[in-house]
Amino acid sequence: SAETLAKWFDALAVLQRMSASSAAFQQTAAELVVSPGGLDGGAVVTRRGASWRVEASCLRRHELATVLRTDLLEQMAAMQSTMILSPSAGDRGNDVAVVCAPIVVAGETAGAMVGFRRPHGANGRRRIRPLEAQWLELVASAVGGGFCRRDAEEEAARHRILLHQAFPPAVAQLLTRNGATLEEALSPCRREVTLLFTDMRGSSVLARQCAPAEFNRLMTDVLALITDCIHREGGVVIDYAGDGVAAMWNAPANQADHAERAVRAALNIQVGLPQLSQTWRGQIHRDINLSIGIHTGKATLGNTGSADRIKYGPRGEAVSLASRVESASKAFSTPVVITEATRRRLLQNTKCRRLGKSLLPSFEQPVELYEPQPSGASDSSAQHVTDVYERALASVERGELHDALEMLLEFERTGADHALVETALQHCRELIAHGAERPATLAPDATWRESCFDVSHLLAAQHAERP
């Protein structure tokens, strides 16, 4: 009747709106076979390889639980069509009628809706009517659709988890909004990125001096400052290693001003250090100092972890160079050092102090290095340091070591104190002590070094001293 059909479709709509992941979904489907379906029992069974498992059931008579026919289920699965088993007219020992409708997911039989009927009381029906079988098919179709939604939801959740494991939250959300699959997001590609490496100076000494819990809290505060500055400039944290952080810009999202962002992040980190030092001075009795190196270059992006432990990040020479530049900042006694490749991508009004060329470990060619200056910096003493240093550097590059030495000594005699000039003075004395009218430094075969301040021997010495 029209009233019966209305009840059926109302009940079906309720089932379709339910979450297939909920505990009630399959139980509701089994109950629909009985009411409003009109059969005496219903069940949801799923296929697990060669076996069948009852997931939910609604039985009016407990003995009906024993009438599941695996041969009928296998035939239904093979043909992927509804099967009806009716009792023989003369068979009073088995008067149960069974109907099985396949639950299809992604073209495969994933289970079945099973309905039962046995004559009892005033109900003398012994067979399954075609309309009742069609109702079971509708319920099976709704369950199959629910299973598809459930699988899609579980895959989406797994995808989100993996994205958040491999990417920072903001990047993972961006990729999710763009509909990128994990495979697409991790697909290897080569592109230009700006890389930033940080390292805390003297952390090994602090690790020995502080209690473990205290040192851990200190490092948490330091890394929180660094991470916050990186994220505020849209950077992606690649990794944390000990007391250092590696980050990048322009991947996976495009950022036309990636070099500017990285330099701003580095300078903001330095701005935040005095307050952090003040907070911790009572415990560690010293300032917190960081070395930061930045380089812009081509890198291979993709999964830098394993198949089981995914981690999105860069590989290649640019990564190694950025790490070496961070180490060079210690040799120059400057907090932030960038390469010429990064400086070329900065705005024209960005002030940078030229530090000179340096042969960094593992690299055959010298790299031009710079120290970026804070935006709006107009300190006359800072400008004086820049003038003295750059004039001394120019003299060294012309082979006029004694002139460079005199400039640096004159700065020292004024009572001014600046770590960069002191480092340059020490190196200039070393060059003269080795008898070089043109700076040949400590490596005799490196003829290109005749026109550069070389810090490679200082870096090597620092590396050897590192715990």
Summarize the structure.
The chain has 467 residues and is an alpha+beta fold. 47% of the residues lie in helices and 21% in strands.
Task: Please tell me about this protein's structure.
With 467 residues, the chain is of the alpha+beta class. It folds into 3 domains: 149 residues, GAF domain (Beta-Lactamase), CATH 3.30.450.40; 189 residues, Alpha-Beta Plaits, CATH 3.30.70; 90 residues, no CATH class. It is built from 15 helices and 13 strands. Strands 6, 7, 8, 9, 10, 11, 12 and 13 form an 8-stranded mixed β-sheet that branches. A hairpin with a 2-residue loop joins β1 and β2. α12 runs parallel beside α14. The protein is rod-shaped. The termini are far apart.
User: From N to C, what is the helix and strand string?
Assistant: HHEEHEEEHHHEHHEEHEEHEHEEHHHH
Number of strands: 13
User: What general form does the structure show?
Assistant: rod-shaped
Mean pLDDT: 84
Strand content: 15-25%
CATH topology of the largest domain: Alpha-Beta Plaits
Low-confidence spans: 439-467
Task: Return the structural class.
Answer: alpha+beta
- Count, helices: 15
Task: Describe the main β-sheet briefly.
Answer: 8 strands, mixed
Oligomeric assembly: single chain
The total tally of domains equals 3
Percent helix, as a range, is 40-55%
- Terminal residue distance: 86 Å
Rg for CA atoms = 37 Å
